[in-house]
Amino acid sequence: MRAKSVGGIHLHYYALCKRKLWLYDKGIAMEHESDRVLQGSILHEQAYPRLQQKEWLVDDAFRIDAIDGEYIRETKISSKMKNADRLQMLYYLYQLENRGIRKKGLLSYTKEKRTEEVMLDDDTRKEIKRAIAETHGVLEEERTPKVIKMPYCKSCAYYSFCYAMEEDEE
Ligand code: SF4
């Protein structure tokens, strides 16, 4: 069986919560999630005023915020999810490298007015390959991964869904 394709958001969710990843992949969308997408697109509109090339759809497979010389760029509101942001950026760099395009990544956080560089090297390449393989593993699970309580849950779109379901399961 051919593996399903995964994208940058899958890797972002993989880093945050395996259950969120699984629910998202099954198309279980929450209203609050569309607010987050809207926030992201407004932020994208305002970011990179000097750049000519904003948004780059690569092979209809994934979309990058902007290209700035040797860098690809992503802008986020805050660095609260920086591990997930970093993994998502590594995914884009790895996908580009597989297509013969070598870039570095810049993650900009508007709230903290900070920018971080992300690069592919032997270690990060291994890390992203492993994360992609494990993401596929989660998506192949037949049952929804269990709720693992963490501080992030309260701001997650699936919060009421997860915690209502959890009460039912107990
Ligand atoms: S509420 Fe918590 S457990 Fe549920 S999907 Fe979100 S992060 Fe995962």
Automatic annotation (TrEMBL):
Keywords: Antiviral defense, Exonuclease, Hydrolase, Iron, Iron-sulfur, Manganese, Metal-binding, Nuclease. It holds the Pfam family Cas_Cas4. One of its GO terms (biological process) is defense response to virus. Residues 8-163 form the DUF83 domain. The keyword Repressor does not apply. Its cofactor is Mg(2+); Mn(2+); iron-sulfur cluster. Mg(2+) or Mn(2+) required for ssDNA cleavage activity. PANTHER family: CRISPR-ASSOCIATED EXONUCLEASE CAS4 (PTHR37168). Belongs to the CRISPR-associated exonuclease Cas4 family. CRISPR (clustered regularly interspaced short palindromic repeat) is an adaptive immune system that provides protection against mobile genetic elements (viruses, transposable elements and conjugative plasmids). CRISPR clusters contain sequences complementary to antecedent mobile elements and target invading nucleic acids. CRISPR clusters are transcribed and processed into CRISPR RNA (crRNA). NCBIfam families: cas4. This is CRISPR-associated exonuclease Cas4. It comes from Alteribacillus iranensis. The lineage of its organism: Bacteria, Bacillati, Bacillota, Bacilli, Bacillales.
